[in-house]
Design brief:
With 280 residues, the protein is of the alpha/beta class. The chain contains twelve helices and eleven strands. The protein has a seven-stranded parallel beta sheet with strand order 3-2-1-4-5-6-9, with helices on both faces. It has a two-stranded parallel ribbon with strand order 7-11. It binds NADP nicotinamide-adenine-dinucleotide phosphate (NAP).
């Protein structure tokens, strides 16, 4: 019986997607560099080892694609994978892309176009993840250690989305291949939210005092580098904060509702679900 391959299957979006697809009766293979011995449908997959692409795709007719993470030039690794996806006869391909295009990552746009040119190819352009407020993301680590959101984005807004809603959107597309899908969806939460608003919500709901620590783009880049991010990726992520400050990333859509039949979670609901994060 054909089934799904979920790359990034152990990550924030992928692991929820795996559960949703399995609950929907879709045989689902979890791709990971370290596949779980306890899961007979776990398979080794490493973007840096193209010999793992074919065996992972064998017998699948749908794929969730999480491109190489923290990489400003993913196309050289993804392009050969896409060729194998086509050869395998995959009929639905859903890529986790980003609403924000990193300033020094032009190949991400070309990669999205290549995905959309595949049979059943869909790109989910996800807004900033609410899960960035959970450790080990540097944003969350800083809140935990210093009680502050450190940002260069001022009070610019982002349409923060819960990764669980991205997974639900992807599941709708992958479980029901008859869905009359578009090739591009902007996936956001219900409304735009600034970092100062996020700090207020966390404080009001959990009692944890969270203040703002406004830094320059250069200081933010240095902090990201110090957290272990590759230099080019850290610099690009900090540069995005300037765009957020200018209001250029303040966009929301109704795609989650259209795809899943239910509205996306609000940040307050996300905080309630993860209250333990701020009380320990
Ligand atoms: N955070 C945001 O605000 C945001 C916004 C928009 C888009 N995105 C995009 O979301 C994606 C990340 O998704 P996520 O947050 O759900 O994942 P995640 O929690 O960051 O987990 C990363 C996943 O990638 C896998 N992985 C890492 N290196 C790999 C490699 N060399 N080969 C194969 N797999 C590898 C990991 O699997 P193993 O460790 O098990 O191998 C894991 O499943 C990124 O592409 C990012 O650009 C993020």
């Amino acid at each position: 019986m054909p089934g799904a391959l979920v790359t990034g299957g152990t990550g924030k979006t992928g692991r929820t997607l795996v559960q949703l697809l399995r609950n929907a009766g879709v045989r689902t293979r979890v791709a990971s560099r370290n596949p779980s011995a306890a899961d007979p449908d776990a398979v080794r997959f490493d973007w840096n080892d193209p010999t793992t692409y074919g065996p992972a795709l064998d017998g699948t007719d749908r794929v969730f694609l999480v491109p190489p993470v923290e990489n400003v030039d993913p196309l050289p690794l993804v392009e050969p994978f896409l060729h194998q996806v086509q050869r395998a006869g995959v009929r639905r391909l859903v890529m986790l892309g980003s609403a924000i295009v990193l300033p020094n990552a032009p190949s991400a746009v070309e990669m999205a176009a290549q995905v959309q040119s595949q049979p059943g190819g869909v790109v989910l352009r996800a807004s900033g993840f609410m899960q960035n407020f959970l450790r080990p993301h540097p944003l969350a680590e800083h809140i935990h250690r210093h009680g502050a959101i450190r940002t260069a984005a001022g009070d610019g807004k982002v349409g923060w989305v819960d990764a669980r809603d991205i997974a639900a959107s992807a599941a709708a597309l992958l479980a029901d291949q008859g869905t009359n899908a578009r090739s591009d969806y902007l996936i956001t939460g219900p409304h735009g939210m600034s970092y100062p608003q996020a700090a207020q919500i966390i404080t009001a709901q959990t009692g944890r005092q969270v203040r703002m620590e406004c830094v320059s783009e250069q200081e933010q880049a240095a902090a990201y580098r110090a957290s272990g991010m590759p230099t080019e990726f850290a610099d690009a992520l900090a540069a995005v904060e300037h765009r957020i400050k200018e209001g250029r990333e303040d966009q929301v859509s109704t795609a989650v509702l259209q795809l899943t039949g239910r509205p996306p979670r609000a940040f307050s609901e996300f905080i309630t679900d993860h209250a333990y994060e701020w009380t320990q």
